[in-house]
Amino acid sequence: MADKDYLAGRVRELAQRTWQNDFLTHTAFLTLAEQARIRGIAGYGAAALPVTGDGQCLTGALAGVPFVLYGGFEEAERRVLCFLPSYLEAEDFAMSAGETVSCIEVRPLNVRFADKLTHRDFLGALMNLGLERDQIGDIVVRRGGEGEEQAKSGGTDCAYIFAISDAAEVICSELTRVKHTSVMGKVVPAGECVVRPAFEIREGSVASERLDAVLAFVFRLSRQAAQDKVAAEEVFVDGVTASSAGMSLKTGSRVSLRGCGKFVYEGELHETRKGRCFVRVKLFV
Fold first, then answer.
1. Model pTM above 0.85
2. At the N or C end, where does the chain have fewer CB atoms within 10 A?
3. What fold characterizes domain 199-284?
């Protein structure tokens, strides 16, 4: 409860500073659970808005002050809450977002001798620099080829790291090794990160938009098995442990099942003739 109260107080303080002084303020990177808390404080779900040069931000307002939740690219999970001054429209925010969130491209110095690097390898190397986790957003890893193909393309395990801009300077100057691989990093426009998570679209009918019904459909479980997973606290909705198998999913909810995977619920497309819900999800693959 104390953490929730601190977050609520902090964002209200930032909103007040922007209102009084008319300059941009922002938090560190927020988890999905913290973002859900922000939307709850604001009193409604943040809406998706096309933003120049980026794809989408999530927008809303708190105490009359407009905000965006920005992670560097459309599918980002970790996002920074930015309160906007009067002279900056949400649609134009991405044009100046580099002052708040930077995208760092990290490549091996010699692709022939580079290890196969994973998200965990890059995150571990960043933590070894003494950075706090909330200074770092999503880390997107691009896989390269093998052997000569890898050497020719220069595409071996390149990573794009989204970070608070002050931390980006530290990363570019001090991140020289990931695992046993020598690397170098440079700040690039967020639009150069063209790597995106891979999704499989699944559509089908469920009895209702209840969590257990959608879980059973996505992961091919029985309804009882889905309920058991929720009871065992193995299911998370927007980063928070699901409290009830009967909760209704909202469009845009991110659901993960420990050991099975995660998906984004895209909502009900229509009602079938038998009164069932025909729904769509994006399953991470």
1. no
2. N
3. 3.10.290
